[in-house]
Amino acid sequence: MKPKRPVIMALVFILATFFAAPTYTMGQGPPNCPPDKALCAKMLRFGKEAYARGKYLDAKEYFRKAVKADPTSLTAWRYYDQTVIFGLAEKVEKNANLVLPDVSTRQEPGVGLPPAAAPAPPAASPVPPGATTGKPEGSGFKIIDDEGC
User: What pTM does this model have?
Assistant: First the structure.
């Protein structure tokens, strides 16, 4: 009888927490908040001007504010999405190491040596024509199905 009591207490605690929790979160904003169409239009205009000048990171901020003012505006969302991509491209242009690092920091044996000091691979000895390699001809690996690259 005693093992059931902690389980019931935990269940009551979970249910009480569930019903006492707020119905909306702070990130969503207050319910029934009307969109501010005037602010959205103003931010769209500023964003389009910055976008036309090639200042994509500035334009992204204007479009973000437009989306925040009116989350239902498809135009604001389209411009915001586009400037996010162009803003990332602008950051990569400023710092190409974000995509293609110029030098690896990891050193492997023989990589840091000058070409004259690097050990040469052993040369294979030539096989005279007609000589056998010691393996029977039928025991080699054969490709049955080639799936391609």
Answer: 0.46
